[in-house]
Amino acid sequence: MPQLNPNPWFFIMLVSWLIFSLIIQPKLLSFIPTNHPSNKTHSTTKAAPWTWPWT
């Protein structure tokens, strides 16, 4: 069963995670979000009762 042999796949997984963690992730985290969630105001909506036509 060659699927259980971790020899080539473990190295590929390790290298891909290192590339993601050391190169891609810092570049993605450097972006500043344009709509920060803490700046939004909370608006409450008043729920009106629904009038059913068959009651």
From TrEMBL:
Protein name: ATP synthase complex subunit 8
GO biological process assignments: proton motive force-driven ATP synthesis
Pfam families: ATP-synt_8
Family: Belongs to the ATPase protein 8 family.
Alphabetical list of InterPro entries matching this protein: ATP8_metazoa, ATPase_protein_8
Localization annotation: Mitochondrion membrane
GO cellular-component term (any): proton-transporting ATP synthase complex
GO molecular function ontology, one term from the record: proton transmembrane transporter activity
Gene: ATP8
Topological relation to the membrane, as annotated: Single-pass membrane protein
Keywords attached to this entry: ATP synthesis, CF(0), Hydrogen ion transport, Ion transport, Membrane, Mitochondrion, Transmembrane, Transmembrane helix, Transport
Residue intervals passing through the bilayer: 6-24
